[in-house]
Write a structure and sequence with these properties.
With 484 residues, the chain is an alpha/beta fold. A six-stranded parallel β-sheet has the order 2-9-1-10-11-12, with helices on both faces. Strands 15-13-16-18-26-25 form a six-stranded mixed β-sheet. α1 runs parallel beside α2 and α6 packs parallel to α8.
Length: 484
């Protein structure tokens, strides 16, 4: 079986839909795998063999009970600003390209994507594919390798997902169907209406109307649900709302923020707020500087907006300051960029809270999964113990003294109140979340009560089994009535 899940727009729930279908099928005993030909995201993940893919495909692989692989996301675009993206092909950096030059590569990239799909299909026999953005982008049809051109090559059933929360769901679905090329429109086998709020009974007549005007069945009316699953891209930041927790953690909202999913596990026990440069850090109990696609440019914006001084004042108040990846580089004394001309290096002063220097000297990226043990320094690091994660970074960072934060990596102040690491996924480890939140609660004279963890993928599968016609979805296999 193969399906292609397309959307009427970005952020309608395609990634979650693919994950939910994958887990539901896996629960029914099927071997299934996710696939997205081309993804654009600054949230990425490193596979066991060192390949870099979109975090959404890693999440979907987990839902499908599969090890993430480069074939699941053969083309990954990581925006760098000024219409330039780093292009990752089969998990490895290919080149940095302006969007116009990238479009000249799409014929070759489509062949790479189709080959990756075929390898997955040969391995599992069931591939649930995800499109990108909105399917009906007329000006992109000749180069849309994630939606139209892929659908034309694969000729597999399409499920169209719409977001009723945005409003205009009739126009979303009918407009998309009408604008699809006729050969692609014929592949649409059904629609899913996502993020419904309220009494579904009041929309029964609406379902009939959609089926009449679109000519395909509504396969499900899926209520809005808030599960602890990784977000795919920065659009999700707009949906985040601070909780009422007495503990407030500030994540610096860097202009080129990447892998902000590193901190979503903290949201279960603290009010996690993404604070833009220039805003006061006075109210917060902890400050975290996240990863970024461009450490130098984002560092200069922090300097211009006065955020470096805000971070230093937070440190002076005894507030923990933590840097992850690019944030770790910024916490150091210097960043030296001589990647273009070694005899004309550009030197930038860092925040200066850690005795490290970072040098960018070549177009080389570190991508590796790691297991590390935190050094017993201060109350936070001492409680972390052994953790797993992954590194994705350009540049090399050298300690000039002081302490390692983790055995063989990172840096820490003598009291452990400032530390930096390249370890993405640190706070996806229970021990790291527990160590940080326990300290922050105790600092306020409170006790932290850990929430019971329930597998969100099982919750998602139950949600989709309840609200989707899974039997009809299973029957979609190019019209032959069942899964292969």
């Amino acid at each position: 079986m193969s399906l292609l899940v397309l959307g009427t727009a970005s952020h309608v729930g395609k990634s979650i839909t693919v994950a939910g279908i994958c887990r539901a099928l896996s629960d029914r005993g099927y071997t299934v795998t996710p696939f997205k030909a081309q993804n654009m995201s600054l949230n990425s993940y490193v596979t066991g063999d060192g390949a870099e893919i979109g975090i959404a495909q890693a999440m979907q692989a987990t839902a499908a009970r599969r090890e993430p692989s480069a074939d699941m996301n053969p083309i990954l675009l990581k925006p760098k600003g000024e219409s330039i993206s780093q292009v990752i092909v089969l998990g490895k950096p290919f080149k940095d390209l302006p969007i116009r030059e990238y479009y000249r590569e799409t014929d070759a990239l489509l062949e790479i994507a189709v080959s990756a799909y075929e390898r997955l299909y040969d391995e599992t026999g069931s591939v649930i594919c995800e499109g990108a953005g909105g399917a009906a982008e007329l000006n992109l049809y000749d180069r849309d390798i994630a939606n139209i051109r892929l659908a034309d090559r694969l000729k597999i059933p399409i499920i169209l997902v719409a977001d009723i929360e945005r409003g205009g769901v009739f126009a979303q679905l009918y407009g998309t169907m009408e604008l699809l090329p006729p050969n692609i429109r014929r592949l649409v086998a059904g629609v899913i209406i996502n993020k419904f709020r309220g009494d579904p009974g009041i929309f029964e007549s609406g379902i009939g109307m959609i089926e009449d005007i679109c000519g395909v069945p509504v396969l499900g009316l899926v209520p809005y649900t808030d599960l602890q699953l990784p977000s795919e891209d920065s659009l999700s930041l707009n949906d985040k709302r601070a909780s009422s927790s007495p503990i407030r953690i500030a994540i610096i909202h860097l202009p080129r923020i990447s892998n902000f999913t590193d901190f979503e596990s903290l949201e279960r026990g603290a009010s996690v707020e993404y604070v833009r440069p220039g805003k006061s850090l006075e109210p917060y109990d902890c400050v975290i500087i996240p990863g970024t696609k461009n450490s130098v440019e984002d560092l200069e914006i922090l300097r211009e907006k006065g955020t470096i001084q805000e971070i230093k004042r937070a440190h002076e108040r005894g507030i923990p300051v933590i840097g992850i990846c690019g944030g770790y580089q910024m916490l150091g004394e210097l960043i030296i960029d001589d990647a273009i001309e070694s005899d004309n290096a550009r030197v930038y002063n860092g925040i200066g809270l850690l005795p490290v220097e970072t040098r960018f000297s070549e177009y080389k990226k570190t991508t590796i999964q790691v297991t590390r043990r935190a050094e017993p320094i201060g109350p936070i690091l001492s409680g972390i113990g052994e953790v797993r994660g992954y590194e994705i970074h350009m540049g090399e960072t050298r300690r000039k003294g002081g302490n390692e934060a983790f055995f063989g990596e990172g840096a820490s102040s003598d009291d452990g109140m400032v530390f930096g690491t390249y370890l993405h996924g640190l706070f996806q480890n229970r021990s790291a979340v527990l160590a940080l939140l326990t300290y922050l609660y105790e600092r306020k004279g409170l006790s932290y009560s850990e929430e019971i963890h329930i597998d969100p993928y099982e919750q998602l599968a139950r949600h989709f089994e309840k609200h989707l016609d899974m039997e009809a979805i299973i029957a979609l296999n190019n019209g032959d009535g069942g899964m292969q």
